[in-house]
Design brief:
Radius of gyration: 16 Å
GO molecular function, one term: adenine phosphoribosyltransferase activity
Protein name: Adenine phosphoribosyltransferase
InterPro entries: Ade_phspho_trans, PRTase-like, PRTase_dom, UPRTase/APRTase
Mean pLDDT: 95
Pathway: Purine metabolism; AMP biosynthesis via salvage pathway; AMP from adenine: step 1/1
Largest sheet: 7 strands, mixed
Low-confidence stretches: none
Helix content: 25-40%
Function: Catalyzes a salvage reaction resulting in the formation of AMP, that is energically less costly than de novo synthesis.
Structural class: alpha/beta
Distance between the termini: 27 Å
Length: 174
């Protein structure tokens, strides 16, 4: 039986020299790989009491939506600025070489709701930290963040100190 790492294709020196790019699309394009990824992420949530699953645009949607479906939980999309049709709250945050902005519907998270964040990858942790701030600004409580992959060399976990962070597979570099 194949492990999840067998479905992840690594592309050296992309998008720049020295980076080992871990391609999530190779997991999604294989029915067994995709099922295994969702199952392994779901396993990280066993025994956890929570109300809502939130996922980051766009690759977080790939895993958050099927998890929400499997676990019969609402799915809340956290989107790039200008993509949500109703009243939103937003946050600007720094990327490695740029600034980005995420939004969530103002009524997506109710005060006191326990929220699980799902994304494909934790690298520097900036997007995930922004998602936490959005959820908390609405009165929600982030009780866990689950990722398919972690690039430990970029120290994203440190940025999320104090939160329950889990990854299916951890790569030591960046």
């Amino acid at each position: 039986m194949k492990g999840i790492e067998d479905y992840i294709i690594t592309i050296p020196d992309f998008p720049e020299e020295g980076v080992m790019f871990r391609d999530v699309t190779s997991v999604l394009q294989d029915e067994d790989g995709f099922r295994l990824a969702v199952d392994l992420m779901q396993k990280k949530l066993e025994g956890l009491e929570f109300d809502v699953i939130a996922g980051a645009e766009s690759r977080g949607f790939f895993f958050a939506a099927p998890l929400a479906y499997n676990l019969h939980k609402p799915f809340v999309p956290v989107r790039k600025k200008g993509k949500l049709p109703r009243e939103t709250v937003s946050i600007r945050y720094e990327l490695e070489y740029d600034v980005a902005e995420l939004e969530i519907h103002r009524d997506a998270i109710k005060p006191g709701q326990k929220v699980v964040l799902i994304d494909d990858l934790i690298a520097t942790g900036g997007t995930n930290e922004a998602m936490i701030k959005l959820v908390e600004s609405l009165g929600g409580e982030v009780i866990k963040a689950v990722f398919l992959m972690e690039l430990a060399g970029l120290h994203g976990r440190e940025r999320l100190k104090g939160y329950d962070v889990d990854a299916v597979i951890t790569y030591p570099g960046k």
